[in-house]
């Protein structure tokens, strides 16, 4: 039960987080632990061991320990809001520090009083004051600017050194008190503020990567839209023009209307082929490039990636299908689980090309709703009579295996599938519908006889309207 709860917490609070979130969580926990370590080693142990066993020192020592405990709780409570304030996520109001300031004042006064009544040694009092300064400084270092922190630390050092001179009356005690203030300020700047600055740079890089990815997607969409415009814009304009010419020829009963509609049909078929070529080029992927990219991306994420086999000699449709498998598998390795190693193997056996991707660190159960990536891969592979298997194997590893029959690049079945795919696009469907409908055939027949000119005009007008509507949908 306990181990299951720990694994669930690890999955929710660690594995499901991104790289930047993990670094931030680790930094916050480190600050929490640092506060308690200094409070225990500089305040708790020296005071418990060194306090005189008399009523007044015991009461003041217990009060000092209670104040130190409250200081730790307050510092832990303010650590996350202070970090959010430094990173610009939220604003921490000044009144949030009132309680911490009161506790700091008590934690600085009580050791001096204890030393004056002979309850603890002067060096124990100095350590207790240093613990109070460190506990407060680890939070305050995220809220104040560096110049303000330096000025206020210098002022506090002067005040505490004056108090130490009046209370202890020795130069070493005064100098050690000033050194403690300087040390606390240095810890605030180096341990906390530098760590928070590193986190801000990390989050800025994370946002830059997300922006770059969105821009890449937008760029690809613009490129695809530009290619479609270049392919279909001119042809649809010519089709609309020739359809209009066929209407006018049909009004006059001229037989040339048939030639114009034949030309419309030829242009529509040509546009269909060009759209198919654009879609095929957009959807295809290069297997060698995807393998190299997967190795680079996984290596950058700290995952050891080993690739065996070569994509040389595989038909283009097979390479494209397996390249999509590599891309989806790489995404899953990065997003799910906590992988440290990944093996990608490409093999050719008995007329079939096989690709397997295996990684460690796979979660025992999915952390969210199932995605559509593997389902899309199965559909893509089924067009080539391929198969896809994915699941956990021994040793807590996850294995994804794809197999595709080897076919020549110009296989008829592949060409038929590509044709059917391209024909399902709205632009190709509009062009094909406009050029091959019964209305177009009616124009061709009716335009050959003067008696059918009026009917040809009406039917051709309908065809022109359909083609113009399709052109307006594609042309920006």
Automatic annotation (TrEMBL):
Q: Where is the Signal transduction histidine kinase subgroup 3 dimerisation and phosphoacceptor domain?
A: 220-287
TM stretches of this protein:
21-38, 58-79, 100-121, 127-146, 153-171, 177-199
Q: Does the keyword Kinase apply?
A: yes
Looking up Pfam families in the UniProt record yields:
HisKA_3
Instruction: Look up and give the organism this protein is from.
Output: Streptomyces similanensis
Tell me yes or no: is Ligase among this UniProt entry's keywords: no
SUPFAM superfamilies to which the protein is assigned, alphabetical: ATPase domain of HSP90 chaperone/DNA topoisomerase II/histidine kinase
Which InterPro entries has this protein been placed in? HATPase_C_sf, Sensor_HK_TwoCompSys, Sig_transdc_His_kin_sub3_dim/P
- Protein name (database record): Signal transduction histidine kinase subgroup 3 dimerisation and phosphoacceptor domain-containing protein
Query: Which UniProt keywords are listed?
Result: Kinase, Membrane, Transferase, Transmembrane, Transmembrane helix, Two-component regulatory system
């Amino acid at each position: 039960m306990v181990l299951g709860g720990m694994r669930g917490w690890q999955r929710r609070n660690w594995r499901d987080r991104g790289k930047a979130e993990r670094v931030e969580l680790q930094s916050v926990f480190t600050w929490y632990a640092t506060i308690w370590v200094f409070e225990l080693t500089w305040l708790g142990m020296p005071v418990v061991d060194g306090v005189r066993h008399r009523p007044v020192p015991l009461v003041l020592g217990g009060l000092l320990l209670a104040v130190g405990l409250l200081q730790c709780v307050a510092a832990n409570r303010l650590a996350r809001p202070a970090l959010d304030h430094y990173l610009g996520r939220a604003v921490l109001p000044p009144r949030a520090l009132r309680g911490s300031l009161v506790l700091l004042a008590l934690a600085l006064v009580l050791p001096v009083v204890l030393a004056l009544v002979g309850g603890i040694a002067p060096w124990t009092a100095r350590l207790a004051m240093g613990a109070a300064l460190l506990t407060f400084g680890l939070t305050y270092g995220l809220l104040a600017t560096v110049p303000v922190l330096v000025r206020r630390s210098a002022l506090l050092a002067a005040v505490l050194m004056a108090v130490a001179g009046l209370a202890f009356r020795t130069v070493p005690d005064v100098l050690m008190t000033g050194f403690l203030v300087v040390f606390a300020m240095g810890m605030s700047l180096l341990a906390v503020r530098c760590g928070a600055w590193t986190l801000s740079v990390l989050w800025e890089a994370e946002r830059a990567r997300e922006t770059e990815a969105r821009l890449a997607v937008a760029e690809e969409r613009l490129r695809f839209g530009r290619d479609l415009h270049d392919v279909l814009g001119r042809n649809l304009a010519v089709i609309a023009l020739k359809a209009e010419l066929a209407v006018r020829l049909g009004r006059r009963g001229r037989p040339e209307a048939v030639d114009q509609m034949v030309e419309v049909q030829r242009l529509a078929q040509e546009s269909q082929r060009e759209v198919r070529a654009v879609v095929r080029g957009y959807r295809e992927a290069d297997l060698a490039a995807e393998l190299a990219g997967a190795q680079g991306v996984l290596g950058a994420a700290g995952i050891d990636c080993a690739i065996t086999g070569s994509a040389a000699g595989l038909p283009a449709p097979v390479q494209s299908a397996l390249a999509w498998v590599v891309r989806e598998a790489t995404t899953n390795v990065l997003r799910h689980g906590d992988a440290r190693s990944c093996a990608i193997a490409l093999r050719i056996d008995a007329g079939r090309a096989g690709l397997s991707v295996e990684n460690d660190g796979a979660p025992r159960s999915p952390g969210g709703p199932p995605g559509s990536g593997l389902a899309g891969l199965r559909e893509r592979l089924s067009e080539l009579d391929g198969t896809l298997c994915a699941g956990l194997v021994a040793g807590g590893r996850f294995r994804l295996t794809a197999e595709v029959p080897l076919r020549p690049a110009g296989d008829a079945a592949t060409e038929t599938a590509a044709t059917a795919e391209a024909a399902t696009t709205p632009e190709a469907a509009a062009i094909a519908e406009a050029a091959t409908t019964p209305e177009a055939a009616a124009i061709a027949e009716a335009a050959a006889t003067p008696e059918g000119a009026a009917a040809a005009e009406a039917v051709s007008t309908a065809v022109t309207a359909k083609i113009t509507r399709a052109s307006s949908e594609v042309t920006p």
